[in-house]
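Input sequence (278 aa), recorded before submission:
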Amino acid sequence: MNRHADPRQQRHWDARAAGNFIGGGAGCGLLLFTTLAGAQGSLRQGLVAAALLLVAAGLLCVWAEIGRPWRALNVFLHPQTSWMSREAALAPPLLACGAAALAWPVLQPLAALLAAAFLYCQARILQAAHGIPAWREPLTVPLLVATGVTEGAGLYWLAAPAWGAGSMAAWIAFGALLALRFAIGARWYRRLAGNLPAAALRAVDRAGHGYNAGSLLPLALVAVVLAAPLSPPLQGLLQALAGGLAAAGGMLFKFMLVTRAGFKQGFALPHLPVRGRH
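Predicted structure, token format:
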């Protein structure tokens, strides 16, 4: 009789599930940062539309993952106990309010609040998987929230320089988000390092390369733009590059976290029952 059950990677959530965390997190983060940065005119409309498309794409990924797609309607039945149900319940008002905000900007702050709640629910979905050590760590929630908002800020700066937009205050806020994301991620990793199965830790390490590069390289670019006198074209190029790196690093991390680091707990039986003994 085998006394140990080795940790095995979960097989229920694949790249399509990761797509929901990527699209939903980045889309909500983009809507939040666009609102806080005070984007105006066609830039505002384009970024809000892009944010809604990302959220919708993430939800379509989940819908495609289900073997019988119309069973997805069952997710609305348990909002009192399920973070996935709460996420699903927030999706229609978020998309509707965001779409209305394209024509009526006064509704955008409400859409941003719904996006923040949606992002929080997403983070709680992953953290609620108690059988998977890499996900259940309490710091997973602030890590995924910070990652989503930073991705959104990155997408904002990927687009804003082309419009000649983006204030220095928004640039400093982007740098602060990068530093916060890196700090939370480092703390999350230290807490997990001694508790993860070896295979899961290797997957987290691989994800960490993109995560670190997607935080530290843009942070260095933020410092360069703040400290050095640059021509507007070069400054805009560096800002767009930093935004793209920040968004890509977060998306890669979430993909690896969901699809590669999801090893189950496993168990061991130190004492086997013997017939005839108590």
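Checked by second reader. The two ends are 19 Å apart (CA to CA).
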